[in-house]
Amino acid sequence: RKISAIVSHLKCILAKDSWKELKQCDVLMCCHDANRSLEVEGRFFSPIIDSLEPDLLAAGLKVDRLASFGSVLSGNKAYGSPRRFNRMWLIFILRRKALVWIGHLFGKNSNTSGLRTPYARVLEKTKCRCVIVIGANELLVRAARERGVRVIEVLHGIGYTPIPWGWEQLNDASFPMGVLSLDSVSTKTFKQLESRGVETRQVEHPWY
Hints:
Helix content is 30%, strand content 16%. It is α/β, with parallel strands linked by helices.
C-alpha cells in the first residue's frame, strides 16, 4: 500500500502543469497541500490563506492561486482551483544541477543565475502586485523584488519565539516584505525584523 501511495503521489506531481492557466491578478495566493487542512464543498481549503480572499475581493482586488511545488491538490481538488507548476520546477532543478555538474567537470564555477526561475515565469504571467504565501523562499522573494512585487508571509502557527527558519541569517534581499501574524507573541517576535525592512501586522486568527 505504501509503494502504491508513493507511485500515485509521483504521478500527480508529474502530471501536466496548469500554471499557464493563471490569469492576470492583483494578488497571487500560494501554499502547499499541508496547509489545506479542511474540506469545503468537496474541495480542500486552507483556513489561513483562503479565509483572506473575501476581504481582498471586497477591496476590489483580483485574486488567483498557485499550488506550491510538490502539491497534488490543484484544480477542482482544492478551493479556488490553484494551478500547479511541478514539472517546471523539476526541469529547473535538473537544469541547475546539470550546469553545476558540467562546471565541476571542467573545473569551473557554474553560473546558474542566468536561469529563469519558475517563480519569475509565474510572476510575469500573472503580473500580480503582491504574493501572499505560506512558506516563502529566497527564489520567490528575489524574483518578486526584481519586479517590484510585494511578498507577504502568512504565519501558519502561533507563539513563534525566537525568529524561526534561520531568518536572522538571511540577507535583507531575501526577506519577504511583510508578515501577517496570528497572535501577539509572534507579532512581537517578528517586529524585531522591522529594522531590516519587514513590516509585521497582526490579523484575526481564522479559528479563534
